[in-house]
Amino acid sequence: MFDVSFTELLVIGVVALVVIGPERLPKVARTLGHLVGRAQRYVNDVKTDIQREVELDELRKLKDQMQDAAQSVQSSLQNTEASLRKPLESLEQDVSALRQSMTNPDIPEPVAPDIPAPTVTDSASASAQVAAAAPSAQSFAEAEVQAMLVPNPLPTPTQLEIDAMAPASTQNPHQKSIAATTTESKF
Questions:
Q1: Cβ-proximal residues to 107 (8 Å cutoff; 6+ apart), any chain
Q2: 143 Cβ partners below 8 Å, 6+ apart?
Q3: Whole-number Å distance between alpha carbons of 150 and 115
Q4: Cβ distance 137 to 104 under 8 Å?
């Protein structure tokens, strides 16, 4: 701290011995040592207080940076949520509009195309009918689109299905029971 050499300290000690005297010199030296120790402790306390203030200032800056980062993340999440909700809301509106249009009586229902069932008499006429009735790619695509728009009608049951659904007590005259067939074949 101070640039004092050993010889200068020796000169100061000799002058103090002469001025103060040998009886009071130990008391003065002790008091001077206490004062220097207090001064050093005071300087160290000031240094640690300054260091704490600097660290607190750095922590405050770090806290402000973290709060800013948290706010920016929160705002970006809110923006992302809003951008995701917009298409969802528009989709919900489209679905509700579609539901309303399905129940609207002013809109006519689509009509299923009337396609006659093919009748085959023999193999020669069947191949001629297939060649003549083969639809073009465009009419086939139109029929597929129309089939997608119109719900499939319920298929008409065949005679075998009707007979199978009939109760066992009422028998069709054309139908034999399985038990009767098996008993007839045994005899």
A1: 101
A2: 113, 115, 135
A3: 14
A4: no
Contact 108, 150 (CB under 8 A): no
Helices 25-103 + 6-20 axis angle, to 10: 120
Q: Which amino acid type is present at position 80?
A: T
Average pLDDT per consecutive 10 residues, the chain (187 residues; last block may be shorter): 79 86 88 94 96 95 94 93 87 84 63 61 55 54 65 62 64 53 51
Distance (Å, whole) CA 121 – CA 130:
12
Residue 55: what pLDDT? 95
Tell me how far apart the alpha carbons of residues 56 and 120 are, in angstroms, rounded to a whole number: 98
Given the structure tokens 């402790």, which residue do they identify? Answer: 41
